[in-house]
Amino acid sequence: MFEVHSDLQRNRLYITLAGYLEGPEREKAMELILAEVANLARGFDVVTDISALHASNQEGFKDLLRIKAALKLKGVGRIIRVVKIPLSRLQVERISEAAGYEAESVNSVSEADRRLDAPGAPSEGEA
Fold first, then answer.
1. Domain encompassing residue 80
2. What's 21's domain CATH number?
3. N or C: at which end does the chain have fewer Cβ atoms within 10 angstroms?
4. What is the pTM for the complete model shown?
């Protein structure tokens, strides 16, 4: 299961991934993510809720790495993820490291929004 939407006013992309994303569903999610990013300005923030996502196979890992690299190329600002499953957390941390960026981890989407909306929150390149 996946859901992707953007908040143009906040210049923010929201991604929710849950369960086991297999090939065609994972590809559709990637397409939607890139389509939403096209609506956002450089420096956009991303909140990724993977609290119910199960670890992926090697092919899924490669797809997630490609999408994270694409976000970086599109000028992503801060990335905050909601993650609870330990194995998924480790896998996503490996993806982030391989893609060359850091992401904060929080316990809920509302906590992510509070951090990003806080006065003095780091801007692009500072996170």
1. 2-117
2. 3.30.750.24
3. N
4. 0.80
